[in-house]
Each structure stands twice: as structure tokens, then as C-alpha cells.
Specification:
Helices cover 3% and strands 42% of the residues. Strands 4, 25, 28, 29, 31, 32, 33, 34 and 39 form a nine-stranded mixed β-sheet that branches. Strands 26, 27, 30, 35, 36, 37, 38 and 40 form an eight-stranded antiparallel β-sheet that branches. A hairpin with a 5-residue loop joins strand 5 and strand 6. With 709 residues, it is an all-beta fold. The protein folds into three domains: 325 residues, Glycosyl hydrolase domain, family 43 (Tachylectin-2, Chain A, 5 Propeller), CATH 2.115.10.20; 189 residues, Jelly Rolls (Sandwich), CATH 2.60.120.200; 143 residues, Trefoil (Acidic Fibroblast Growth Factor, subunit A), CATH 2.80.10.
């Protein structure tokens, strides 16, 4: 593996491959149907947009084995445990499997006399060495789990070692196996035996004695030892340390600097101008056969949980830094797909729908704690999921709750339910597992059935451990008694962190029950919200059964207007900060911003010219092109018979929620208008302001072309 710095010249091969994709897939149409319905990072034109998955995938670690890429992520208390993904191009991923079907390491893992909410599997490290896949992951209070398999699909053999926090393992080229761990300096670097079944007791005492973070990723690259780790928190950065020897000394620098990719700390709809955002941090790095370097790196996304992003890496002065030349330690939200040499059609990584007809669960389902297999079935009545109720005091302690991760930025989960098998004391329905939690469901008593929306009032929001299972419930009972056969729905909008519950007698017309539920990210479950199908009995005995069918997770904003590039169209660009419009100052030959008005002047109209995969030039009405002459100078240039070059080329960057940015290929920075101060436009912005009020985010509107003023 050799360090590789991104330059425009070195990207020519990537652009050539991307051009083939662009020819095969138009900017806004022609994508496979699944990619239109479900979030797909691949834009179909040779570019991709973050996040890779618009749903939670925590603590990513990525490797390449030959021409294939593999990704491991945290599953905490969920089962199966340790999620594994694979890809050919680092953009389109599919589920490869899990390391453990059942994380059954004691009674609390089964919700017996306790729970492991917010604990369990954390921050896995995945490695490939001499034909064998290895995954290392700590389990809180139990120990370090070591998994090995010749196939990423398993079966996986497991052994256990003493616990280590947020570890990373390096198979060194001298035959030694190093492991680094910890969340405060100095970070111990220990040796594992060759069979990975013990620590080497007489190994030299080694430490990385520098201020780093946690979530280590240890590598040997081009003869240098490299450790990447993240400062704990939300608006935090990632650090990188490099040494010539595993014994040090280590040189340290900041690998990421305040890069939010436009993700706000508050719910986006409530974000103010001073919002610092949630920064990318904690992720691994990987190379391609062509010599490029990339990082798959995490950031928090409010109540939806933590998501992963793919960002380019540039080597500078021996350090791998996030970003591109001219704008290092920052990252584009949209960029050219990696040059892996593999071309494929866009494909969503996660499709959550399940009609239960196959007799197997959709592999994206995860049980909340270890399930009792004798009390659930997809074969007892073919075509449905049957949950027999088990005794529980409340939803938090209900066994056999089946969960998924809700897609963002908006998702509508619906399930059909037959309650004819319920008995007195049974409660069943559709929940949002979090702390506090909420659910819509049917309760059966001796008097009959009631339908209600319930939410816990005092669920704890910080500190892993036991939620307050005795917490009071606020209940809103529907005035209409439910029939035995009904549909339940929860509509989650992660722009305002609100969830609305409703129900239906026919699956078409739905009636809302109760006020919106405010979703949160918290450190009790240490996850975003989880839609869950559940059934429990409060009498202290086993109860009846409920049949669930036709679970769907609709994504109404899987592809927003920002994913469309209006090639060949004439548009007006309006600043999201103050409503000013971009315009051509013909006399000064500059790009400027003008105060908003009722009439759009002709000089505010620009034709969008295609110049490459996901890239455009902006042509003014007088035939000149917007051109970057320097960070503070954006001019209008008459190209004559020449084609637009790097100075005139912009990467079309989408941020969702209607916001678009233009990254100059001359300096990898962004066009920006000075908020509330109309005048010259610059190309100096290093990234998006999280609240989209910094002047670099624009909304575009198609208009009729007209002559220049």
C-alpha cells in the first residue's frame, strides 16, 4: 500500500470510469426502481452522496481484501451481533451477515433479571490475514470477543480474551500481532499470541503517549505505523498519529477539523444560526488498487442515530488527512466514486420491507436482546410473523421485540396485525424503542380490546444501563374500539425529530392517535430510535399470540430535488442564508449577489452546462462563464472556442432539504455569498454551515432563459 494524494491529474482515470456511468444513467432518471424508492448513496452519474446509509450504522471499521471491501459495525444489545457489509466499489454495499446469531453471554443478555441496554458489542475491528477474516469486539463487563472465519459469511469461531476498550489490531509484517486500546493517554500497545487466544505476558511495555481519543484504527502503511482515533463526543474531531516504530515516538495531528457535512446538532427544523453541527469522527481508512485512499467515518444524526460517510483522504507530510488539496481536514458531501475499477448500477444497501412469506425474517431485523426462539415463528402460520406473549412488566422488559433501524430523513413504518389470538393481559403493537419510548398498540382485558398510544414519562437519557422500567406511562386511548384485524403506523420525520402514530381498519385510511412524540438520541440504549414489533403479557404468565404481516418502511424523501442536476436548463440560484440571488455583473465581469426582489433580472439566470460526472459550468446570459480566479475572486470569463476548464468547473453538491453547493475544482472550496451583505461572491467557503445560513448553500429554480441585462 502506498500513500496517495488526490490531485486533479491523478483523478483522470476515475473521471473516465465515472463518465461511462454517467452515460449509462441520466442525472435524474433511469435509476433502478429500488434506488428511487430507498436511500442509495450512488447518484447514478459517477458520483455518490453521503451518508452511505441514511440510517444508523455505528463505529465503522473498513478493510480491503483483494478487490473487495468489508465493513463492520456496532450492534450493542441487538441480535444478531456484529453487522458485516461488503462492497465492490465502496459506495454500493450489501449485508454479508453477522458474527453471532445470539449474543447470549448471561441472563441480562436475555432480559432475565436485568438488561444490557447501551452495552453489548461495541466498536468492532475487522481484519483479513493469510486467508482468514478476523473481527475483534469488546463486550462490556464480559471480555474481548475474537471471531475468525475463512468466509465473511461465516461460520465464525469465537474465543474470549480480557476486555479492552475501543481496540484495534495490527498483524505486523514481522509476524507479531499488536493491539492498541483505551480512551485516554497513554494508550497501551500490547501483543497477542499468534493464535489470538492470549496476550503475550513478557512483551515489552509500549504506549502511544499523546493526546488522541478512542475508537482506534491501527495500520502499517508504507513502513509507517498509523493510529487513527476519535475525540469522544458529538461536535468533535478525529486525530491521527504516525511513527517509524511501534515503540514510537509518535507524531500527532488533527485529521478532521470541524466538518459537519451540514448535519446540525439540533433537529434541522429547529437549528439556529449558531448551531455548531455534529462533526464526522471515528472511522477507518482504506486504499484502492489504484492507490487512492478513503475513509468511512461516522457522525451523529440526532434521534436517527449515528451514520457513516465516505470521504477522500489526502496524504500530506506523512499524515493521512480527510479532504482534498486546497481544503484539507474538510470533506465534500458529494464526490466522484472511488477508482476501484468496478462499475455497477446503484443499489440500496437496506430494504426493510418484509411480508414474512419466505418463512425467514428479512436479515435486517434485529431482536432487542436474545430472543426466546420457542415463542416466535414465521412457519407456525405461514406468511406471518407470530409472536407469543411472554410475561413482562412493560415494553422495556418485553422479550422477543423485533426491531429495525428507521431510514431517514423521513420514513413511514406500517404493519398489519391480527389480534384474534390475544388473551387477557396481552399488549401488542408497533413501538419506537428509545429512552423514553413510545408505542401504539392493542391491550386485551376481560372487558375487551382497547387501542392507545403510550409513552414513558421518565426514561433516562444519559448513562448506559437499565432504563427506568417502572416509569409512568402517558396514555391516549382511541375512542374507537379496534377490530381484531387492523393496521398500525408510525411516521418519523428526523428533520423535526417528531413521530406520529396512527391506525387503520383497511390499510388505506389512517386515523392519528395522540400528539407527536419527540424522538431523542440518548446514552441509555446508546442508539437512535428503533421501530419494534412487540407482544407481552402483564399478568406474570405467558399469554396468547399476535400475527404481524406486511411490514413496510416507506421513504418519501429517498431522492430529493437536490439529487437532480438540471443539465441544459436555465436556473436562478437563491442563497439559503438571506434570499439574495446570484447574478452576473457584466460591467465588472464578476459574480455578485443581489437583494431579493419580486422580479428576477435576466442577469440572474444561468444555464447549467454539463462538464463531467456530476459536474457543471454556469453560463451567464451574455455567454460568459462563472470562473474562479482565486479564493476571493469569482469572475465572468469569455472562453471563446475553449471548453470550460478547472476554473469554470464545479462539483454539484447536494445536502438534502433543498440545499445545493458548488465546489470549485480549482481549489476544492465553495461558492459563497456574504449573508446580508449583497456584493461580490467568493470561492473561499470550506464547507457548509450546519444551519445552512453561512452563504454557501443555495436553492435552485428552473426559469425561462432570456437575454442578458
Amino acid at each position: 500500500m502506498r500513500p496517495f494524494g488526490f490531485t486533479l491529474g491523478c483523478l483522470s482515470l476515475v473521471w473516465a470510469i465515472a463518465g461511462v456511468l454517467a452515460a449509462a444513467a441520466p442525472e435524474s432518471t433511469g435509476l433502478p426502481p429500488a434506488a428511487m424508492k430507498h436511500w442509495t448513496a450512488d447518484n447514478g452519474n459517477g458520483t455518490y452522496s453521503n451518508p452511505l446509509f441514511y440510517e444508523e450504522f455505528e463505529d465503522p471499521d473498513v478493510i480491503r481484501a483483494g478487490d473487495d471491501y468489508y465493513l463492520a459495525g456496532t450492534t450493542m444489545h441487538m441480535n444478531p451481533a456484529v453487522q458485516l457489509m461488503r462492497s465492490k466499489d465502496l459506495v454500493n454495499w450489501e449485508l454479508a451477515g453477522y458474527c453471532m446469531d445470539r449474543l447470549d453471554l448471561g441472563p441480562a443478555f436475555r432480559l432475565e433479571g436485568g438488561n444490557i441496554y447501551g452495552r453489548g458489542i461495541w466498536a468492532p475491528c475487522i481484519r483479513y490475514h493469510q486467508g482468514m477474516f478476523y473481527v475483534f469486539s469488546n463486550v462490556n463487563g464480559v471480555g474481548l470477543q475474537v471471531f475468525r472465519s475463512k468466509s465473511i459469511e461465516g461460520p465464525w469461531e469465537r474465543n474470549q480474551l480480557p476486555g479492552r476498550h475501543d481496540l484495534s489490531v495490527l498483524f505486523n509484517d514481522d509476524g507479531k500481532v499488536y493491539i492498541i486500546s483505551g480512551n485516554r493517554s497513554p494508550y497501551p500497545i500490547e501483543e497477542l499470541s499468534a493464535d489470538l487466544r492470549s496476550f503475550v505476558p513478557d512483551a515489552p511495555r509500549r504506549f502511544l503517549n499523546a493526546k488522541m481519543g478512542e475508537g482506534h484504527h491501527l495500520y502499517k502503511i508504507n513502513g509507517k505505523y498509523v493510529d487513527v482515533s476519535a475525540i469522544p463526543g458529538g461536535p468533535v474531531d478525529q486525530m491521527v498519529a504516525v511513527a517509524d516504530s511501534i515503540d514510537g515516538p509518535w507524531k500527532v495531528t488533527r485529521m478532521v477539523a470541524s466538518e459537519s457535512l451540514g448535519v446540525t446538532a439540533a433537529a434541522p427544523a429547529r437549528a439556529g444560526t449558531g448551531d455548531r453541527g455534529l462533526w464526522i469522527h471515528q472511522g477507518g481508512i482504506v486504499d484502492t488498487p489504484s492507490g487512492e485512499w478513503w475513509s468511512i467515518i461516522m457522525s451523529d444524526h440526532g434521534s436517527a442515530g449515528r451514520m457513516v460517510n465516505l470521504v477522500p483522504v489526502t496524504w500530506q507530510d506523512g499524515f493521512p488527512l480527510i479532504g482534498l488539496p486546497g481544503n484539507l481536514r474538510k470533506a465534500p458531501n458529494t464526490w466522484i466514486k472511488p477508482g476501484t475499477g468496478h462499475v455497477q448500477a446503484p443499489k440500496p444497501a437496506f430494504v426493510h420491507d418484509d411480508n414474512f412469506d419466505s418463512g425467514r425474517l428479512n436479515p435486517h431485523w434485529q431482536w432487542n436482546h436474545v430472543p426466546e426462539d420457542s415463542s416466535w415463528s414465521t412457519n407456525e402460520k405461514p406468511g406471518v410473523l407470530r409472536l407469543h406473549s411472554l410475561p413482562a412488566a412493560d415494553f422495556y422488559s418485553a422479550r422477543n421485540s423485533l426491531c429495525q433501524r428507521p431510514p431517514g430523513p423521513e420514513s413511514i413504518m406500517t404493519v398489519e396485525m391480527d389480534t384474534s389470538g390475544m388473551v387477557a393481559g396481552d399488549t401488542a403493537g408497533l413501538a419506537l424503542l428509545s429512552s423514553p419510548y413510545a408505542w401504539i398498540g392493542v391491550a386485551k382485558s376481560a372487558e375487551g380490546r382497547t387501542l392507545s398510544v403510550n409513552r414513558s414519562l421518565n426514561g433516562r437519557r444519559s448513562g448506559p444501563g437499565r432504563p427506568d422500567s417502572a416509569s409512568a406511562l402517558e396514555s391516549v386511548v382511541s375512542p374507537t374500539a379496534p377490530p381484531e384485524h387492523l393496521w398500525l403506523r408510525v411516521h418519523c420525520n428526523f428533520d423535526n425529530d417528531e413521530a406520529v402514530f396512527s391506525w387503520s381498519t383497511d390499510g388505506t385510511e389512517f386515523a392519528r392517535v395522540g400528539d407527536p412524540f419527540t424522538m431523542t438520541f440518548q446514552l441509555t440504549t446508546f442508539q437512535g430510535v428503533r421501530p419494534a414489533l412487540f407482544h407481552f403479557n402483564t399478568s406474570g404468565q405467558r399469554g396468547g399470540y399476535v400475527d404481524f404481516d406486511n411490514f413496510t418502511a416507506d421513504e418519501p424523501r429517498a431522492r430529493g430535488i437536490e439529487r437532480e442536476i438540471p443539465l441544459g436548463k436555465t436556473i436562478v440560484l437563491t442563497s439559503g442564508a438571506d434570499g439574495t440571488v446570484l447574478a452576473a455583473d457584466v460591467e465588472a465581469s464578476k459574480l455578485v449577489s443581489l437583494p431579493a426582489g419580486d422580479d428576477v433580472p435576466a442577469r440572474a439566470k444561468f444555464q447549467v452546462v454539463s462538464v463531467g460526472p456530476g459536474r457543471v459550468a454556469l453560463k451567464a446570459g451574455n455567454g460568459t462563464f462563472v470562473s474562479v480566479a482565486g479564493p476571493e475572486s469569482v469572475v465572468l470569463k469569455n472562453l471563446g472556442a475553449e471548453n470550460p476548464g478547472d476554473a469554470e468547473n464545479f462539483q454539484w453538491i447536494n445536502l438534502m432539504r433543498g440545499d445545493t453547493m458548488f465546489m470549485s475544482l480549482a481549489n476544492h472550496r465553495y461558492l459563497a455569498a456574504n449573508p446580508n451583505l449583497p456584493g461580490p461572491v467568493t470561492a473561499a467557503a470550506t464547507g457548509p454551515d450546519p444551519a445552512r445560513k453561512g452563504g454557501a448553500c443555495f436553492h435552485w429554480t428552473e426559469v425561462t432563459a432570456g437575454p442578458a441585462d
